[in-house]
């Protein structure tokens, strides 16, 4: 059997059918929900059909490998996630799950383990890559217990019906001796490859990320009777900080390309047309390709919040909710992917850096790790219009197959 793009397209469509929202609105699969379970169970059923044995780990991650290969035998690891951002696309994460699934169908004896990492996006529990962090032990059970979803439930409790087991988790950490390396396939989520007519690429580095939660407290007051000079408007302060953040990102990106800041979430209280906003909470997502730039931006963000809130008589509190360094991927494994690409007729294999984060960044310090990117149409992602050609995902799967089946 050979890698088949139609089967890959069918898998992507099937998983897209499991969503809390209709396709025209977008694809929504928060982790540890019925929609997520249906996507996970579809992959499990297909992997079993392909002759795999399957384990749901105490982290909630799913592992599948050929039934003929004992769990103790070191093999290659490949996978991604099936959770999505709210109203996201069909390909983010899913492409990286169905590609190794297809490799296992086409090569039922491949020394390959498919993994579905539980909760990559960070939009279900306000922190990303939970499954990979729990597996590597970079996130403790206590930290997981402190997170909560839209219903106020922690991933430990929400995940229990899905196989999460806090007590067992600590005894089942990733043992790097158990794997030869991780190769995560993912859609690029940016426009560079599509513009350049590149179908696939090897990813040599992943940018770092800092995330923050900012809380501004002003004075809720009457919108008619309170003169402009008498106000402490938390939302006006937030707006000024946001435009300041945009200007900061422009300045920093002129020094180092692809330095970006996003405010993606905003909560206003009391959120009424005739009340001056008294409280605002918003998030900041800041990314850069070097750790020096992450430090510089961190300082700039703090100074900006402090100065703008003081000027307006607003009380400001902010906290970092995440700090992840920029990660170089394994040079030897990247080279192996180039050699695998040559075998399937892609020579040279283009290079890319990832502006988005991936579970690969969490495993990279422990295992030889590399990524294969597949072009994203017009660079659109985290959007229902997200699209990659199934034949390009299939080409990525062929490279993955050649890589894991290659000698040595
Ligand atoms: C994952 O999608 C990220 O936010 O980088
Ligand atoms: Mn992803
Ligand atoms: Mn994503």
Give your account of this protein's structure.
- This protein has 408 residues and is an alpha+beta fold.
- The chain folds into two domains: 280 residues, Zn peptidases (Aminopeptidase, 3-Layer(aba) Sandwich); 117 residues, Alpha-Beta Plaits (2-Layer Sandwich).
- The strands form three sheets. Strands 1, 2, 3, 4, 5, 6, 14, 15 and 16 form a nine-stranded mixed sheet that branches. Strands 7, 9, 10, 12 and 13 form a five-stranded antiparallel sheet that branches.
- Helix 1 packs antiparallel against helix 2 and helix 9 runs antiparallel to helix 10.
- One manganese (II) ion binds next to loops.
Would you summarize the structure shown here?
The protein has 408 residues and is α+β, with helices and mostly antiparallel strands. It has 13 helices and 16 strands.
Give a quick set of tags describing it:
globular; 2 domains; binds manganese (II) ion; 5-stranded antiparallel sheet; single chain; 22% strand; 408 residues; alpha+beta; 16 strands; binds glyoxylic acid; Aminopeptidase; Alpha-Beta Plaits; 13 helices; 9-stranded mixed sheet
Which structural category do the helix and sheet elements fall into?
alpha+beta
Please give the domain count: 2
* Mean model confidence by pLDDT: 97
Number of strands: 16
CATH architecture heading of the largest domain: 3-Layer(aba) Sandwich
Element pattern in H and E: HHEEEHEHHHHEHEEEHEEEEHEEHEHEH
By DSSP (H or I, 4+ residues per run), the number of helices equals 13
Poorly predicted ranges: none
Rg, Cα atoms, Å: 22 Å
Question: What distance lies between the first and last C-alpha atoms, to the nearest angstrom?
Answer: 23 Å
Q: Residue share in helices?
A: 25-40%
- Name the CATH class of the largest domain: Alpha Beta
Write the CATH homologous superfamily of the largest domain: Zn peptidases
Main sheet properties: 9 strands, mixed
Q: What is the name of the CATH topology of the largest domain?
A: Aminopeptidase
Q: What is the molecular shape?
A: globular
What percentage of amino acids are in beta strands? 15-25%
User: Ligands bound here?
Assistant: glyoxylic acid, manganese (II) ion
């Amino acid at each position: 059997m050979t890698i088949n793009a139609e089967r890959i397209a069918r898998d992507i469509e099937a998983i897209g059918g499991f969503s809390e929202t209709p396709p025209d609105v977008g694809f929504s699969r928060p982790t540890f929900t019925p929609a997520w379970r249906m996507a996970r169970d579809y992959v499990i059923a297909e992997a079993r059909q392909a002759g795999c044995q399957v384990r749901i780990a105490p982290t909630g991650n799913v592992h599948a490998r050929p039934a003929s290969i004992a769990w103790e035998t070191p093999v290659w690891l490949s996978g991604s996630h099936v959770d999505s951002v709210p109203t996201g696309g069909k390909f983010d994460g899913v492409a990286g799950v169905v590609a190794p699934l297809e490799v296992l169908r086409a090569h039922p004896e491949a020394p390959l383990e498919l993994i579905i990492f539980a909760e990559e996006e960070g939009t279900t529990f306000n922190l990303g890559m939970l499954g990979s962090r729990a597996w590597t032990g970079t996130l403790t059970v206590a930290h997981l217990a402190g997170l909560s979803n839209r219903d106020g439930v922690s991933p430990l409790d929400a995940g229990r019906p899905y196989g999460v087991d806090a007590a067992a988790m600590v005894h089942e950490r990733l043992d790097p001796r158990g794997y030869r390396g991780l190769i995560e396939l993912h859609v690029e989520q940016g426009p560079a490859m599509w513009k350049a007519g590149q179908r696939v690429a090897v990813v040599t580095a992943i940018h770092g990320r800092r995330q923050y939660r900012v809380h501004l407290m002003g004075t809720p007051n009457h919108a008619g009777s309170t003169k402009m000079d008498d106000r402490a408007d938390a939302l006006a302060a937030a707006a000024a900080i946001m435009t300041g953040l945009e200007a900061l990102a422009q300045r920093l990106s002129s020094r180092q390309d692809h330095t970006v800041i996003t405010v993606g979430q905003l909560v206003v209280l009391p959120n009424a047309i005739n009340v001056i906003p008294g409280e605002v909470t918003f998030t900041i997502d800041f990314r850069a390709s070097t750790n020096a730039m992450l430090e510089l931006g961190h300082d700039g963000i703090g100074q900006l919040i402090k100065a703008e809130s003081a000027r307006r008589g607003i009380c400001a509190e902010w906290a970092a909710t995440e700090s992840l360094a920029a990660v170089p991927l394994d040079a030897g494994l990247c080279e192996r992917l180039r050699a695998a690409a040559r075998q399937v007729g892609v020579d040279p294999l283009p290079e890319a850096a990832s502006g988005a984060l991936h579970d690969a960044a969490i495993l990279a310090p422990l295992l030889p790790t590399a990524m294969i990117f597949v072009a994203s149409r017009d660079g659109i992602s985290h959007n229902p219009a997200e699209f990659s050609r199934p034949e390009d995902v299939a080409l990525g799967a062929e490279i993955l197959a050649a890589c894991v089946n290659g000698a040595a």
